[in-house]
Amino acid sequence: MNLLSLFLPLIRRQWLMMLTGLTLAIVTLLAGIGLLSLSGWFLSATAVAGLSVATAQTFNFFTPAGGVRFLSIARTASRYGERLATHEATFRLLTELRVRVWKALMPLDEARLAGERRGELLNRLVADIDTLDHFYLRLMVPMGAFIALLLALFAFIGWFDMGLALTLCGALLLCLLIIPAGFYLLGRQSAAAVVNGKRRYRLLTLEYLGGLAELAMFKGLKGERALLDSAESEWQTAQRAMASLLGLSQAVIILAHGAIVLLMLYLAAQGVGERVPPGPLAAMVLFAALATMELLQPLASAFSQLSGCAAAAGRVKSLLDEKSAICFGERDERLSGEVGFKNVSFSYDAANGSGNPVLNAFNLTVAAGTKVAILGKTGAGKSSLFALLCRSYEPQHGSISIGGVPITELNERALRATLTVVTQRVHLFAGPLRDNLALACEQKVADATLIEVLEQVGLGYLASGDEGLGQWIGEGGRQLSGGEQRRIGIARALLRDTPIMLLDEPTEGLDSQTEQLMLARLFEHAKGKTLLMISHRLTAMAEMDCIHILEGGQLVASGKHTELLAAHPEYRSLKSRN
Ligand SMILES: Nc1ncnc2c1ncn2[C@@H]1O[C@H](COP(=O)(O)OP(=O)(O)OP(=O)(O)O)[C@@H](O)[C@H]1O
Predict the structure, then answer these.
(1) Can you tell me which atom of ligand 1 is nearest the CA of 385?
(2) I need a labelling partner for 276 at 20 to 30 A (CA). Which of 134, 155, 320, 364 fits?
């Protein structure tokens, strides 16, 4: 069911190329069977004609020889075309499927994605979709061609002898009904085990490689390696079982085909239609029966893979059916920088009922154009405030607004165009420095602007090498230090011009001189904008219009730096710890 519901919409769009592939597959098989039957008849008829001088002189050698040549050229040409068309159709189907999965994946909210291992998503996007190429190429095309050829064969042999046609096509039909069903049932477990084994091995390999440094440091390599080896050997066992089954299927098909050929030889030798003895027509029927091997061969392997395909389809379909819990609205307008949290309650795992509230009837209003800091102990829920404002998560109660408009009414474009966020963890893509910076801008941005911003954050030297902005930033920015990565995050923020800036401990891990410099740049850039900064240090607090202290999911104190220093011991203790 999953397979069909996944493929039906695709078939509707790619039907022409798929039909072309199927038609060419039918033409190839027709030409193959025609070639063998005609050759069989031609050789026997030539031998019979040679028995007397009179028949040898009157026998027309040229037309059948031309037919053989035509059919062999037609077979080669249509086989070439078939391969092109079926593979083109497969690639189109897989491309569409992959794009569909990607589009379904993109809008999923963080709460939904947090439950998935990254390797699992990659697996669905790559390995599972690859497995689905069996469906058209190895299942639909051979089955369609088989049925079309069965009808053609029935008409052709039936023209000479209805009994022989019924026997040959009946036996082939029986093979079609029994062999695929049998091998589907036999291969059900192994095919699913191969797909699952591959999936598990991929997941573990990705985790192993990702955690290699930690595993080496904490002597965990051996245990993890053993886990990987056992997953590999399970996968190999499943593959071995599948290969044995495929071998068995080929043997069964050869046996069934041999029996059909013998039966046809026996029956055709008794006479073909009115002709007794049958003469060269017996060879024609026999060779036609021999040629049906090409029809039978793909049957068993196609069906033994079916359960693997169905398992992959189930996983891909479940991803396509996922819906984000976050629904964006329709409003698309340029907003002022006022931010409001009204009676907001939020817990990360409210869905399973056991959630500890991170925010509890939380209220906060930040006037447009002001600089506000939110301080609190680690785990107090400061970053969660930003996550809610960016709509990575949805609060269970209350409402959040920007410029007086509830954020649930805004479309995604409007929301993103209003916010600039410097997150705690800056993600760098394995790509050129230029691309890693330019992704902050919606419009194309000049290299000179990027270099200027890099200089502002003290990273001008990165672009001064031979490769300039084309310098490759390794996977996750491995070629850069932690502090350099953070400053690239700040550079991205400086490239944006939005009414609100959200800074989540933007200078964590930087030395105090660089920290002062970065904050000065950010505050300069934030002039006239609303700036919300999360911190657990008191650095730059004197420059804030208001500072709030978050504790137990609520604000426990608010005021200016000097007021809080005087009135709030917790605030003073923050300072003394730093
Ligand atoms: N994605 C998540 N899923 C489940 N719980 C989370 C998630 N992110 C944070 N939490 C939990 O929510 C609480 C608040 O986390 P949050 O990151 O908002 O705190 P914070 O004040 O920013 O802390 P820090 O100063 O250490 O960054 C913590 O108890 C944390 O364990």
Answers:
(1) 18
(2) 155
For the Cβ of 379 lying below 6 angstroms from any atom of ligand 1, the answer is yes
Q: Name the token pair of 468.
A: 């300039």
Residue with tokens 């397979």: 3
Dist CA 505 CA 331 (whole Å) = 31
Cβ partners under 8 Å of residue 504, min gap 6: 382, 383, 386, 421, 422, 423, 424, 534
User: Which 3-state string (H, E, C) describes 439-502?
Assistant: CCCCCCCCHHHHHHHHHHCCCHHHHCCCCHHHCEECHHHCCCCHHHHHHHHHHHHHCCCCCEEE
Residue identifier of the C-alpha nearest atom 11 of ligand 1: 379
CA of 387 to the centre of ligand 1 (A): 10
The second-level CATH assignment, the architecture, of 339-577 is 3-Layer(aba) Sandwich (3.40)
3-state SS, residue 547: strand
Ligand 1 centroid – CA 382 distance (Å): 8
Architecture of domain 2-320: Up-down Bundle (1.20)
Displacement of CA 350 from its chain's centroid (Å): 29
Atom nearest to 381 CA in ligand 1 = 18
For the chain, the structural domain boundaries read 2-320, 339-577
Mean pLDDT over 82-103 rounds to 91
User: What does the pLDDT read at residue 208?
Assistant: 92
SS3 432: strand
**Confidence tier at 111 by pLDDT (50, 70, 90):** confident
CA of 429 to the centre of ligand 1 (A): 24
Largest Cα separation within the chain, whole Å, is 127
Kindly report the backbone phi and psi dihedral angles of residue 331, in degrees, each rounded to the nearest multiple of 5, phi listed first: -65, 130
Neighbouring CB atoms inside 10 A of 578's CB total: 10
- Strand, helix or coil at 113? helix
Range of weakest confidence among 54-63, 183-192, 264-273, 546-555 = 54-63
Structure tokens at 54: 């009179």
